[in-house]
Amino acid sequence: MHAARIKKSGGRKIYWLSPGWLENWKQIFKEWDAAKSNETFPQNDKAVLLDVVQELILCLLQKLLEKRDKFLLWIKTRASLGLESQN
Fold it and tell me: 46 and 60, same structural domain?
């Protein structure tokens, strides 16, 4: 992975980001002041977001599983109340 990042950077200084990092950046930088930010970010030529496709797929899958679970709970609740459909 490290070698792939070096190759992708083409010798430039990259600030590597992950979806999880983007989700939590406010917490990560909550104690940073302007001086620390100015010291850190100008050293990089650009930022690159990693693992986007995998993270998006996992997020979508999680949402689908949550919807499935809600549906199954709804079915179970209706069945336990004797409200299942009549054939």
Answer: no
